[in-house]
Structure formats: structure tokens, C-alpha cells
Specification:
Elements: E1 13-17, H1 22-34, E2 38-42, H2 47-57, E3 65-68, E4 71-74, H3 81-86
Length: 102
């Protein structure tokens, strides 16, 4: 298995966050195990990226947000992530602020 990169030139996905939580630890471990490249954009230090997310998702922006295949996804369920990534389909759903799948 290839070692994943934390800041590759062209990552498979981007994780927008502000702080670490249990979800983030599990997400990163899972991505590393699956060999996916990813990078972090910490919105505390990248205000431009934060404004772009607000323009797409509205305010407030629930975090973390994953960008994959040109789409934004709010905290997708970790249990579904490995199969979706392995199949190369991306994420099937956007999790809304209220937790509903759309």
C-alpha cells in the first residue's frame, strides 16, 4: 500500500476543518489505511477558503467539510466511506446541517 501524503500537489480529497475531534482522528486513520491522499485546510488561518465554503454551503458552515470530485460533503458517515472510495464513486450524499441525507 502506498503511503498517503498529507499535502500532495493534487490530493484525492481536501478536508476543511478548524480543530481536531474524534471524527477527524477516525477519518484520517481511515484515509491513511485506504491509501488516499488528502490535505487539510484549516479555516482559522485560511479565511478565503472559509468565505468560499460560506458562498456554497451557507452560514454557518458545519465542519469538517470534505471536498471530493469538485463537490462538498459535510461530515459523511465513516462507515460508508471505505466502500464509496474503493468503488471510486465519491460520496453518495451531502449531509445537511440538520443531519438529513439529501
Amino acid at each position: 500500500m502506498n503511503q498517503p501524503q498529507l499535502a500532495p500537489d493534487k490530493p484525492d480529497l481536501i478536508i476543511y476543518c478548524q480543530k481536531w475531534c474524534d471524527y477527524m482522528h477516525h477519518l484520517v486513520n481511515m484515509l491513511q489505511e485506504l491509501g488516499w491522499s488528502f490535505m487539510f485546510i484549516d479555516l482559522r488561518f485560511n479565511h478565503k477558503a472559509g468565505q468560499e465554503l460560506i458562498s456554497v454551503l451557507g452560514k454557518p458552515v458545519p465542519l469538517p467539510v470534505l471536498e471530493f470530485g469538485g463537490q462538498y460533503y459535510v461530515k459523511p458517515e465513516l462507515a460508508e466511506l471505505p466502500d464509496l472510495l474503493k468503488e471510486g464513486r465519491g460520496f453518495r450524499f451531502f449531509r445537511g446541517i440538520d443531519g438529513s441525507k439529501t
